[in-house]
Write a structure and sequence with these properties.
Blueprint lengths: L1 H15 L7 E4 L3 E4 H24 L12 H20 L6 H14 L7 H22 L13 H11 L2 H22 L3 H68 L4 H23 L23 H5 L7 E7 L7 H21 L5 E8 L3 E8 L12 H12 L3 E6 L5 E8 L14
Length: 439
């Protein structure tokens, strides 16, 4: 009977409630749940997500160190001024010709500061457009004031999302949309033209945001590769120091045992301790700027060096022939330099095997000089698949060379193929930092 009464009561509710209440969802142990409640919760969650995203956008910092001006900026201004002159001379339907020309020249000039002051330039350009629209409305001109070259403001829309902070993007977008809304009201455009005009206006901003995201992602990946290279250097430093410290402890124990009966042997042990200590300090000084990630997993295999290059050259069966030659005294290199030489050759040979289309030979030269070690790796393949921008592996090697006080360069050869050159100090080196640039 109770079940029948409940069904009758629910039926009466459905007759006297709006249609939305008819969608009921049973929930175990709690009776029916109205979809209106579910929709309300979902909307509340959506509002919370949007609010958090807007806060994150508002707090987004500006792109650091944007280039002030490059040759492309002057070329853009020159093209804009040339277009302005041509329109002023050739067009007969220009409204308020002096005002239109001056306004367009001002728009061209604002592009010179679009990276360093994106919000100010957008406000200046689109604010001027609002004033011209209002002036045009007051005078009752049949055609709008301005020139077609004024479309150069789309460059400012791109720069706003590419270089501006989150606050700049929000405020600048408000100014841009306000200008567009005013033009729609004044010009009385049909819906199709309104949608097309809006898409045309925001498209440069979408491109700017995409380029910014891609550049930021690449910068973070490069930093990750640099961090990994520093981690590897720290591991090598740990292995080197552990080896020398173990030798120091053994010699100290031996010297203590024979100190009373054989002072000469004890003195010899002290000399060995001094030598091992000096080597340890030398290895530590060569990596003073290396960092270590505590979460990194320790490598148990011994680090490879110059002595392992012959084995590396034999692993390319079926690929281009590897011509390896080592010149000079390479047996007494510091451990960090020894491992760096191997890593440069390994990465360069691997890149040649993967990307050098049609390569028949990879030439590897490792030359020891009194003060430095030179490494050269070149191939005779096509540059297909390899761009002028270095990859993450070469970025890590460049970071390693810089930390050791050396240099590394890589790029296409004038006569074809790819060339990697590295120069590493073989003696005591000091830490060097690295600098980056923003596009």
């Amino acid at each position: 009977m109770a079940a029948v009464e409940n069904q009758t009561r629910d039926a009466n509710v459905l007759r006297h409630r709006p249609l939305s209440y008819a969608f009921l969802r049973p929930e175990a142990g709690n009776g029916p749940v109205l979809w209106d409640d579910v929709l309300s919760r979902e909307l509340s969650t959506l509002r919370s997500v949007i609010r958090d995203e807007l806060r994150a956008l508002w707090a987004e910092p500006r792109v650091p160190d944007p280039p002030v001006r490059v040759w492309r900026d002057w070329a853009l201004v020159a093209a804009g001024l040339a277009g302005t002159v041509l329109e002023a001379v050739l067009r007969d339907d220009v409204v308020w010709r002096p005002v239109s020309v001056l306004a367009t020249v001002g728009l061209c000039v604002t592009t010179l500061w679009r990276r360093t002051h994106p919000l100010a330039m957008v406000a200046l350009a689109f604010g001027s457009a609002i004033l011209l629209t209002l002036a045009d409305l007051g005078t009752g001109h049949q055609k709008p004031v301005g020139l077609y070259t004024g479309g150069i403001v789309l460059v400012l829309v791109y720069a706003l999302t590419r270089w501006g902070s989150g606050r700049d993007i929000v405020l600048g977008s408000v100014v841009i949309l306000a200008t567009f809304a005013l033009s729609v009201v004044v010009d009385d455009l049909p819906p199709g033209d309104q949608v097309g005009g809006l898409l045309f206006l925001i498209f440069p901003g979408v491109i700017g945001a995409s380029v910014r995201f891609w550049t930021t992602s690449r910068t973070r990946e490069l930093e990750r590769m640099r961090s990994q290279e520093r981690v590897q250097l720290a591991r090598e430093l740990h292995d080197t120091v552990a080896h020398h410290v173990s030798a120091i402890v053994i010699r100290a124990q031996a010297g203590r045992v024979v100190a009373g009966s054989d002072p000469a042997t004890a003195v010899h042990a002290l000399e060995g301790i001094e030598e091992e200590g000096a080597r340890t300090l030398e290895a530590m000084r060569s990596m003073v700027v290396s960092l270590r990630d505590g979460k990194a997993r320790a490598e148990l295999a011994p680090q490879a060096g110059v002595a392992d290059l012959e084995r590396l050259a034999r692993t390319s069966a079926g690929g281009p022939r590897i011509d390896l030659r080592r010149d000079g005294a390479l047996d007494d290199l510091p451990p960090a330099v020894d491992a760096a030489v191997y890593r440069v050759v390994q990465e360069s040979v691997t890149n040649a095997l993967r990307h050098a289309a049609g390569a028949t030979e990879v030439v590897v030269r490792v030359t020891a000089e009194p003060e430095r070690v030179r490494v050269t790796v070149r191939d005779d393949g096509a540059v297909t698949g390899r761009s002028h921008r270095e990859g993450y592996g070469l970025t890590g090697l460049r970071e390693r060379a810089t930390l050791l006080g050396g240099v590394l360069d890589a790029g296409p050869r004038p006569d074809g193929g790819w060339l990697v050159e590295a120069e590493l100090p073989r003696g005591r080196v000091s830490g060097h930092g690295h600098s980056g640039s923003s596009r």
